[in-house]
């Protein structure tokens, strides 16, 4: 939080597998704020987009967007091709890609929390209802795809 780059080696240690998940998540977010011109840090964070734990992947997605390094775009776009994403991850990934391309999303230090992102706070009731309808439709489509893969009727 203090922006002291001397914390980078410690944070690199604490993002590793085997450390508590909450600590890893906090370390990912902290790394994103340091040495923003260091491509190695961006690569480390991008590596967590393949993590099986939802909270780690979520932290990586947001951290890459906040970091502002456009070299993270391919990693985020690769995530969009996966079929194991939660419903809320897809728009979150797209928002962070847009942020990295300079075409939208939240800038600088004003980061939406995952709760704000999921509830759409700050939007009108009509916008929220429309978003919920899209999410329900997307869930239905995913459920149909899963059922067809399983051979369910």
Please characterize this protein's 3D structure.
By secondary structure, this protein is mainly alpha-helical. The protein has two domains: 117 residues, Serine Threonine Protein Phosphatase 5, Tetratricopeptide repeat (Alpha Horseshoe), CATH 1.25.40; 31 residues. Helices cover 62% and strands 0% of the residues. It has eight helices and no strands. Helix 2 packs parallel to helix 4 and helix 4 runs parallel beside helix 6. It is globular and about 50 Å long. The termini are far apart.
List keywords for this structure.
single chain, Serine Threonine Protein Phosphatase 5, Tetratricopeptide repeat, 153 residues, mainly alpha, 2 domains, 8 helices
Helix content: 55-70%
Mean pLDDT: 79
Count of DSSP H/I helices: 8
Low-confidence stretches: 105-122
Using only C-alpha atoms, the radius of gyration works out to 17 Å
Coarse morphology: globular
Cα distance spanning the termini: 52 Å
Order of helices and strands: HHHHHHHH
CATH top level of the largest domain is: Mainly Alpha
CATH topology of the largest domain: Serine Threonine Protein Phosphatase 5, Tetratricopeptide repeat
Query: How large a portion of the residues is in β-strands, by DSSP E?
Result: under 5%
What is the name of the CATH architecture of the largest domain? Alpha Horseshoe
Work out the count of structural domains.
2
- Mind describing the biggest β-sheet? none
Quantity of strands, as a count: 0
Structural class: mainly alpha
Q: So what's the oligomer here?
A: single chain
């Amino acid at each position: 939080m203090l922006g002291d780059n001397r914390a980078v080696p410690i944070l690199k240690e604490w993002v590793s597998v085997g450390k508590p998940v909450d600590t890893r998540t906090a370390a990912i977010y902290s790394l994103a704020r340091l040495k923003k011109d260091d491509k190695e840090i961006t690569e480390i964070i991008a590596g967590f987009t393949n993590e099986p734990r939802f909270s780690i992947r979520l932290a990586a997605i947001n951290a890459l967007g906040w970091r502002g390094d456009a070299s993270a775009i391919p990693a985020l776009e690769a995530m969009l091709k996966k079929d194991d994403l939660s419903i809320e991850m897809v728009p979150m990934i797209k928002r962070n890609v847009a942020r990295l391309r300079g075409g939208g999303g939240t800038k600088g230090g004003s980061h939406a929390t995952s709760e704000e992102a999921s509830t759409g706070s700050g939007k009108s009731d009509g916008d929220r209802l429309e978003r919920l309808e899209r999410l329900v439709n997307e869930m239905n489509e995913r459920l149909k795809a899963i059922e067809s893969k399983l051979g369910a009727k």
